[in-house]
Amino acid sequence: MDDNTRIPEKPTLLLERYRIDGLLGEGGLGTVYKAYDTRLKRFVAIKTLKRSVYSNDPDMYRNMEERFHREAESGSRMHVHPNLVVVHDFVTDTDKSLYLVQEFVPGGTLADRLTREGALPQTDALRLAADTARGLSAAHEMHIVHRDIKPANIFLSADGRARVGDFGIAQLDDLSGRTRATSGHPGTPLYMSPEQAGSSGYVRQESDQYSLGLVLFEMLTGQTYKKLRKRQAEDLLTQQPEQIQTLVRKMIADDPDDRYESMMDVATEIQRIERQVASAATSLPQSVSNDTVIVQDLPTVPAKPDVAVRAKAPTPKIVEAAMRSVDEMERGRDEDSLTVTDKTITPETSVAEQAPRTKTLSSPTPARPISRRNILVGTAAIAVVTVTGGVVAFSNRQPIDRLAGSTSTPTPTHVPVNTPQYRINGNGAKLFDQPDFRNGNVSMALPAKGTVYVIENDSTFLKVVYYYGDKSVEGWVLKEDVTPIS
Fold it and tell me: Which residues are catalytic?
């Protein structure tokens, strides 16, 4: 072998297992890497704490070591939950460096999103707050109080779900109240509850609720609550619907006893508000394309006995032309009695009864032939009824792509045979222009119980075709928003 021939070196693996792929964050307390687990074939996030960095400050190292242990213990207690960041392992290396191996959450943090976008859409803010409340509820059941709920510690998964992470200063059972007798609780002052900021004793679960209320305010307004004067904060809050104002005020009440009893109560209340907001949105007139007709149902109001509402419909041109031709041919002739009268319509009259014209023919003499005028005028009257009936039927057609709650989707004749069909779940679905909820744009909101046809399968998304009327649209939906039709 030539001495100049170099054998490629194997990439160095951290802990003989993890390939470092990038830096996620770095600060005075440690470093966070994105890494690939070569054994389990998955990406992870690894927090590191090197003993050498704190060689001149052993107290600081012990404090950080305690935080690592606390976060690892919190993760082991809570196991796997859809709204919590999973802790996979806690390792001490030969040089006494500490490594906390966690689930890699690809969507970044809520703080990142707020920096990019400012105030979030109301539906997103409520959904993320409910996700966070459910995650914290699971922690509270294990007697863990997070004590540092803020946008930087709420992570966003690929499907948009909120995941609570960084339990490094969590209160486990009642230990924290005894370890910080003089210095007070650790945490972030901008999001601390009054009792956390003002005491060194045990804090209850309601403290996390207060912090989440401040985060919800920030998501709704784009402003940090404690950086505002009280009047400014109140003015911003009053711009929200009344039920959201009530929710936030109760969550950030100064007295913990005035807040909700549990985080699950918070999540339940948010779900109730989400339904109210969705119901109010679907009751408003929707903006539609120019070629779509929407007829709103009117409330049933009994008409007064002596008042009739007359249907005034323009006479079709074909009928006018027929009438003029017959008049010219038959002018002056004595003819059978034929009257075309307007139909009297009240708000209770059914569509089938709303034919705007009816004809009444006198009984003809059997021996007398029917005149051409009678034939043409009778044909014209039938044309009026047919054309107008078609307009009424078309006007009552509900555009399935625009009205929430629509339960029918026409089956297109040009769908490929054996194309998988999926039913849209009860909350509807968003149709993205690319399989990326962060960078993709929402091209359409799909109604609940509609049908989509799957043409491509991604890890998190499905590429689908959605048909409405004689039109179709193609895009990506989250897998969790649809269910296969067996």
Answer: 148
